[in-house]
Amino acid sequence: MKSMWKRMATGAMMVCALGLVAGCGSSEKVGVVNTEKLVQESQKAKDINKEMEAKQKEVTDRLAQVQGTQTEEQFQQTQLNAQQELQIYGQAKGKEFKAYVESNIQAVAKEKELTVVANDQAVVSGGVDITEDVLKKMNESASSGETSK
Asked: pTM of whole model > 0.70?
């Protein structure tokens, strides 16, 4: 679970770093964002984490139900299928979160008229820190999404 979040954060960092490199040598306004903080503090990440835990419990309960009813070989195959199901579900949720983060970063960057946004770890100095603005936008849209459900 933690490795999935680390991979998402690393992927977001690489995307942001590419944006920084593309803007080198120009007088562009550069924003920086702490993607790890977004993962740790956003409501969307917390919601996805709860969904992942619920899916894990669902799969575990399903495995417990069939455990005495299958041969050892069949049960091993059922476990393998369950692991694959969880992995696919986790990857889908990871992509969903990444797209959500990127769209919120782009929205804040547009509001602040930034042409490049990079991960704060990729920038030694300078840049406009938009982490709090992105986090606020993410949490606002997460709470408005809950009220519209």
From this structure: yes
